[in-house]
């Protein structure tokens, strides 16, 4: 396999000089079948994007330092099969703050050469980026073991399918964190247009939203997804499912996660102006501050929220919120065997209209599952009125 070094093509490798052209020249020198770029453990300043149009693997550590507030650092183009980046640090010059662009942009475009196949991004470190990793029009991307620190206030850690379709994404073992002294970054992980995705054993600390499932527009959907074993300790919402403008979310399993939020909700499912079908929320620890535990809001006119299964969750700690809040037009609901520890039965929710069966446990005399407008009383059983359960 061909190995090239950017130093051989004029790179300075001090983290201050602009080495973008040297990297592009080194990659251009590789055969069409690709090869290896030897970083030699050095820091390289990038004022412009490094464009990758063939299979490239980066080795021997090293660091990329953004010298510009905008633009991508590594940009992988359509049709590339086998891009790999591992054990590289992506940082930003102390003189700038990033306002756009990704550290690694898997930039497939259906109007060009086709999808990026099998990109692997593992065990890298990202600091102070606007967007650490973006993936569009790709098949089977693997993003694992990365550490993403202090994404800027308006940015995100990992985004999948923002503009174009992605199939078979795996996100596992990544750690995303915002320091106490930083403004809270908007989103840790966001899924847009993606079919078949796994988000497992990741941690998101101090973001406003830990994981957002948000396809936008009638052509976009997020289907057959699993969120399993994640630790999401956030300021506003740990998991937000919210399609917009005709977007669709279906067949989503949220299981075995630690979901913590200081304000709005540990988990919030809202059909908004999109379609939500087949959501299972099971076996999670939902800890919340001034808001609610698991919130499922019904749709706006002309949209749908069908098939909701909530079972085996523990939702506790807020003295003024609800453990489970069903506050819209939802059909085919099953909510059972959940424990909601401290709810004080606040005011009812207008226009609740559910079909389903509810058997949950809460503190004696208090409401653990709100469905209080009277439309489904015959189908609702709250065991807290029968059994005194310790908080």
UniProtKB/TrEMBL annotation:
InterPro entries: PbH1, Pectin_lyas_fold, Pectin_lyase_fold/virulence. This is Pectate lyase superfamily protein domain-containing protein. SUPFAM superfamilies: Pectin lyase-like. It comes from the Bacteria.
